[in-house]
Amino acid sequence: MARILTGIQATGVPHLGNILGAIEPAINLANDPKNESLLFIANLHTLTSIKEPEVIRENTYAVAAAWLALGLNTERTIFYRQSDIPEVTEMTWYLNCFTPFPMLANAHSFKDKSDRLSDVNAGLFDYPVLMACDILMYDADIVPVGKDQKQHLEMTRDIAGSINHNLGKETLKQPEASFDENVMIVPGIDGEKMSKSYGNTINLFQTDKKLRKNVMKIVTDTTPLEKPKNPDTCNVFKIYKLVASDEEVATMRKNYEAGGYGYGHAKQELYEKLRDRYSEPRERFQHLMDNKHEIDQELEKGAKRAREIGRPVLSRLRKELGY
Ligand code: ADP
Ligand code: TRP
């Protein structure tokens, strides 16, 4: 049985791109009984860029509520909040002392962020070491991440290797990264990749009225209603294809090609599809956000289980280090 672990950023309410591209596939992977899986919300990492306590708290809840609402099975997956495991920050100190300064200084993500952000703090610099502890503290075998995290995973392996070499003993387990080769890219309402940073998202977790308005903003061309249209170049159709059945997609294609079918019609169908397909998760999300103690209960249960795995690893390391 492989132990799979991954972390998710607490950057706000997940959008349709996050759901189709990351959350649903991860839930499917976690449901495979061959795996033991740990999934956590990296809300200590959030502090490197967000300093408002209320925003950190709300984002963490929103991310947790989305995963729970979309069907994460918390019996099978150990689901927790990074900040509920303070031991990870203790371990970060130990690993810091084995991490070469130039390795962090040359990290792509640090160089990129320190060029862009005005707040270049030591936490931002040390981000990869905290991330390494997130992984190494649980003896993880496999870490599924996006390609942008490749270097962070290499650093994790290097840091573990350096500790093991220094201590002359296999103290920390070196994990493998796993990259999904056929990740889908969900287009946003302007046709570019859907992303919070581009402000082109579709947010399922809002009222029907707002969701409809959100869908109506999808950018289309000016072909008049009565003219035939090319579905394959249309942003509405591209998104519809990702959420509708083959039959429904074939019908919409015919409608586009026949003419007399406007983009407004297509948007209305897409809106209804999203509303109906996600009706349960949307209701459940709202329920959880109105009853945050239920989210807390789930996350605390997960933290307890995570600590049972993590603490012995930390003790092992402390002992080997002479403490
Ligand atoms: P954003 O670009 O909105 O800031 P993140 O970088 O926080 O999103 O991504 C969180 C997860 O969601 C990652 O696993 C990422 O690959 C996935 N993801 C984000 N946007 C999309 C998209 N448009 N299509 C598919 N997957 C996406
Ligand atoms: N840095 C990761 C990201 O930006 C989030 C993360 C933090 C993570 N700790 C982790 C991912 C540990 C995998 C394992 O997406």
TrEMBL record:
Enzyme class: ligase
Catalytic activity field: tRNA(Trp) + L-tryptophan + ATP = L-tryptophyl-tRNA(Trp) + AMP + diphosphate + H(+)
Keyword Lyase: no
EC code: 6.1.1.2
Pfam family, one: tRNA-synt_1b
Entries under InterPro entries matching the protein: aa-tRNA-synth_Ic (IPR002305), Rossmann-like_a/b/a_fold (IPR014729), Trp-tRNA-ligase (IPR002306), Trp-tRNA_synthetase (IPR050203)
GO BP annotations, alphabetical order: tryptophanyl-tRNA aminoacylation
A molecular-function term among this protein's GO annotations: tryptophan-tRNA ligase activity
GO cellular component: cytosol
Coiled-coil region: none
Keyword Aminoacyl-tRNA synthetase (UniProt): yes
Keyword tags: Aminoacyl-tRNA synthetase, ATP-binding, Ligase, Nucleotide-binding, Protein biosynthesis
PANTHER family: TRYPTOPHAN--TRNA LIGASE, MITOCHONDRIAL (PTHR43766:SF1)
Similarity annotation: Belongs to the class-I aminoacyl-tRNA synthetase family.
Protein name (record): Tryptophan--tRNA ligase
Lineage: Bacteria, Pseudomonadati, Bacteroidota, Flavobacteriia, Flavobacteriales
